[in-house]
Here is the input.
Amino acid sequence: MEEITQHDLLIIGGGAAGLRAAIAAAEVNPDLKIGIVSKVYPTRSHTVSAEGGLAAAIKDYDSLDQHAYDTIKGSDFLADQDAVEYFVQHAKEEIMQMEHWGCPWSREKDGTLAVRAFGGMSVKRTIFAADKTGFYMIHTLFERTLKHENIKRYDEWYATKITTDQHGVTGVIAMQMKTGKLHAFSAKAIIVCTGGAGRMYRFTTNGGIKTGDGMYLAYVAGASLKDMEFIQFHPTALARNGVLITEAARGEGGYLINKDGERFLKNYLPEKMELGPRDMISRAIMSEIRAGRGFKSPYGNYIHLDLRHLGDQLIKEKLPLVREIAMEFAGIDPAKEPIPVTPAQHYTMGGIDVNLDMETSVPGLYAAGETNCISINGANRLGSNSLTDCLVFGKVAGEKAAQEISKKTSKTTAQMKTALEDEEKNIARLLEQKGSESVPAIRMTMEETMDQNAGIYRDQKALEDGLNTLLELQQKLQHVQLKDKSKIFNTELINCLELKSMLTLGEATIRCAMARKESRGSHTRSDFPDRDDKNFMIHHVVTKKDNAMSLTNAPVTITRWQPEVRKY
Amino acid sequence: MAKKVSLKIRRYNPETQKSHLEEFEIPEKKGMTVLDAVNHIKDTQDSTLAHRWSCRMGICGSCGTIINGKPALMCQTFCETDKGSITVEPLRNFPVIKDLIVDTDNAMEHFRTAMPYTDIINRHASLDKEMIQTPEQRKKIEQSSQCIKCMLCYSACPVVGHNPNFIGPAAAALAYRYLEDSHDEIPNERMDSLTQKNGVWQCSFIGECSVVCPKKVDPAIALQRLKTMGVLHVTKALLTKRKK
Ligand SMILES: Cc1cc2nc3c(=O)[nH]c(=O)nc-3n(C[C@H](O)[C@H](O)[C@H](O)COP(=O)(O)OP(=O)(O)OC[C@H]3O[C@@H](n4cnc5c(N)ncnc54)[C@H](O)[C@@H]3O)c2cc1C
Ligand code: FES
Here is the structure.
C-alpha cells in the first residue's frame, strides 16, 4: 500500500450511521472514492445488538406532529426542534428505503408493516424485525454496500487521528491492526460515525467496542462536544452481566414487579405504567431497590421483568432474542419464570456538536449516529428513535459531504506525511515506555468511578470526587507500561488508545454534569431535584482550548413547542 | 478456597511463528462464559493475550473459536468445569494472526459472490408506500437470514479446508436468502455468479456447517437447494443460447 492513500470521502465507523452515509454518498456520485475505516468488521458494530425497533409515523392514525411532540417531551424540552422536525419528516422514507433494500421488517397479517408500542411514544409507531432489528438492519446495509464498487472498506483499521490544516480536514491516520502499521488517508471530507461511549461505565448494555473514539478524535481535531452530561440508563438489563432485555418486552405487555409482587410503577407512572420513558422508569426501579423492595443477589439488587402472561407463542414469535438471552445467559425460560433485571448505562445522548447538515465547526468534518449531538435527544432519548436517527442523518451526512466534495479540488498532502510520522513516533513511544501503571487497572477504576459518581443519581460532592479520580487516572495513563510490545494485532495497545478517549469523555461528562445544577431528563441531581428552565434551557458545549476543557452554553432551538411540565 | 477453572489457550506468536498451549487458572464464578474467563485472564494475568469480542450476547459474531475441539462462540459457551479443563484454540481453516485471532478477510470477500442485494441499478420507486410482503413470504427467509457471519461454518467445512476459494456455507446461505426474498429482482445474475467454478458445485454435503451454526441457519440445506436451482439455471441458459 502507498504511504498516503487518496480518498474523496472517508467515513470512520461502519455501524448503521456509517454504512447509510456511505451508500448515500455513493448514490449521489458513483465516481467518488469512498473509504470506510472501521475497527471491526462492519457487521460487528454495536448496531447489531439493537433489538426493539425504530420509530416512524407510518400509520394512518399517527402524525408527524405527534412523533415530534413525543420526542421533544421525552427530551425534557432540550431537543432542538428544527432537527426533530426534519427527523420525523424523513423517518418514513428511510423505513421504506430499507424495505426496498430487503430488510425483513416484521409484518401484519395483510403484509403491511407491523408496529409495536415503545416507552414515551403515545401511539404504536415502532417498526421492527422480530427483536433483532439492529441485526437485520446492519446486515442489510452492509450487504448493500457490496453493490457499490466505489466503496472501499478498511476493516479492522483503528483511526488514531483526524488531520486538519487552516482550511479544515485533510485526512485520517489509521492503524491496520493485523500489521500494526500506520497509514495516512487523505480526504476532502470526513464523516465520524463511531457510536457511543458507554464503556466508560462498568455496568452497561454496550459492547466492548463502544469506547467513544470518534468523539475524542473530533474533539482533539477542534470540534466541540455537546450535552455530555446526558447518559441514558436503560431500565432492564440482565442483572448478571448488563446484557439488554429490550423495551419491546414491555411494549408487548411485560410487567415490572418488586419483591412484594407489586407492579410498583402504579406509584410512579400510573397512566403509562411500563410504557413510561426510560429516565423515569430507571429512577423508579432505583427507588424501589433503595427502599429495600428489590431482590438481593451476589451481583447486586434487581427487580423482576415478568413476561409469563404473554405466553410461549407470543414470546417465541415477537421476542425470540429475549427468550434466547434469558435462556442462554440466565438459564430462565421467560414463559415460565420472571427475568432478573436492573438499570444499566445504555446510550450517550451527548456527542459531537453538528448543525443540520451534520457538519461540525471544523470545515469538512461531519458526524452522524450516536456519536453526534444535533440534538434530537436532548436530555433523554426515546427508545427506538436512534436507529431511525442513524438512517435519516447518516444519509444527510453522506449527501452533504458528497455535494461539498464535488466543489473541492484535491488537497496537497505534504502536511499529512509529517502527521503520519508524528503519529508513528507517538505509538512507538507508547510501546516502549516504562512505568508502573496498567491499562486494565486504570480502566476498571474509571468504570467504577463513572458508575458510582456519574450514574443515575448525581450530586456535587460525588461529581467532584469523580472528576478528581478521572484527572488522576489521566495522569496515571501517562505512566502506563504495555506488556505487549508487538506490532501485530496488539489489543493491549488498542485498549490503551480507547482508554485515553474514554478518560477525556468521562471528564467532559462530569464537567457538564457539575455545571448543570438542575434535574432534567436522564440527569438527576439529588441536590437540585427540579428542572430549572430559567437558567438551564441551554446546551453545554465543550471545546479544547490550550490543552484544557472549556465549557460554554448554546441556545436550544424552539420552533413550535414551548417547554411545559413533563408529566406522563 | 474458591473453586478454580482451568483454561488451556493456544497462543501463537506471529514474530517467532510458534504456537503452544498455555494453561491459566482463574476462580470459578457461577454462570461464567468462556469469554468472561478469557477476558478475566487478559485483565488480571496476561494482557498480551489477543482475542476478538464485542457484544457478549451472541449476535456480533466476533468471538468464534474452537472450544474443546468444536467451533463455537466464546460468549455463548459456559465454562463447564466438571469436564476438566477447557481448551480454547483459534478457528481452523484460516491463517492465524495472533493467539485466538484468525484472518477472515479472504472469506469475507466471498459474500460479494452472493450478490446480497435486491437490485443492481438504483431504483427510484416511490418511498411513500410500503411494498407488501406477507408473513408467509417473510417466513421463507426467516431461517436463512439469521446468519451473523461469525465464520464458524467456514472453520467446520472440509471443502473450505481444501479450497479457500470455495464461496463457502455462509455466503451460499446468504445468496439463498436473497433468492427467496419476494423483493428480489436479480435472481439470474445471482445464479450466474453462484454457478461459477468456485460456486455451489464444490459443496460435498458433509453438513458440518449446519451442525456448528450458532443461529441454526442450516447452510447445508441452502447449498443443496442452490445446486438444484443451479442445474435448472444452467440448463435454461444453455437452451436459450441454442435458440439464439
Ligand atoms: C443493546 C442495545 C440495544 C439497542 N436497541 C435499540 C433499539 O431497539 N432501537 C433504537 O433505535 N436504538 C437502539 N439502541 C441504540 C442504537 O443501537 C445505537 O445508538 C446505534 O446502533 C448506534 O449506531 P452507530 O452507527 O452510531 O454506531 P455503532 O453501530 O456503534 O458503530 C460504530 C462504528 O465505529 C467504528 N469505530 C469506533 N471507533 C473507531 C476507531 N477508532 N477507528 C475506526 N473505527 C472505529 C466501529 O468499528 C463501528 O463500526 C440500542 C443500543 C444498545 C446498546
Ligand atoms: S462477543 Fe459478540 S458474538 Fe460473542
Q: What stands out?
A: Strands of chain B lie at 4-13, 18-27, 64-67, 70-73, 86-89, 96-98, 101-102.
